[in-house]
Amino acid sequence: MPSVRKPAAAAKRSKTRPPELFRKLIAVAMDLEQRTMRLYCHYESVFPEFDEVRAFWFDMAEHESRHYGALAMVAGLLESAPERTLPAAPTLTRAHVEHIRTLLDQAEAEAKRGITLTRAFETALAIESSEIEDLVLDLLTALKGERERERAVKILIHDLGDLSYMIEKYSPNRALLAKGDKLIEQQVHRLRNPPVRRLASVPKRVGRRR
Ligand SMILES: [Fe+2]
Ligand SMILES: [Fe+2]
Question: What is the extent of the structural domain holding 140?
């Protein structure tokens, strides 16, 4: 797997990466998105008791496949114009990448041993709040403009809303529910940048089942 080396000072200065580094970052991100998609596919098959839960994991996996597709498109653009670069996720560091890689390593090992639904929810929450998702959002913005970013953030908020709803309905872990709701609030805050409205105005369960 390619490694990400970050020339910290240079990246901070320019907020862009050299094309070679950028290509490596895309390759790493594609690998992580694909692993996330596979993890959610696995969850879809190991919790068959409730159709609603199964449909939820199916949607989550599908959205990860779209992230993978968006990154594949960026990789294609870079292949056609090797000197091209995009100002994506300037704050994404190697530590962030390592963090999600470790998270996925653990999640995959746990999934093999067998996990509870609550633990699967907890893992999804950690993944969805990761900086890798930020990278996809940034790339979509750079490629297709601000409206595309808004659309992607809305989908993320929708997913988080569904995740919170699932936790509320199928897990006894109230702390996890609070964490999910906090994450929704953060994303809504981001969508409304600059934030002016109070969090109290945020619907608690954004986008229940479609
Ligand atoms: Fe993703
Ligand atoms: Fe995601």
Answer: 16-192
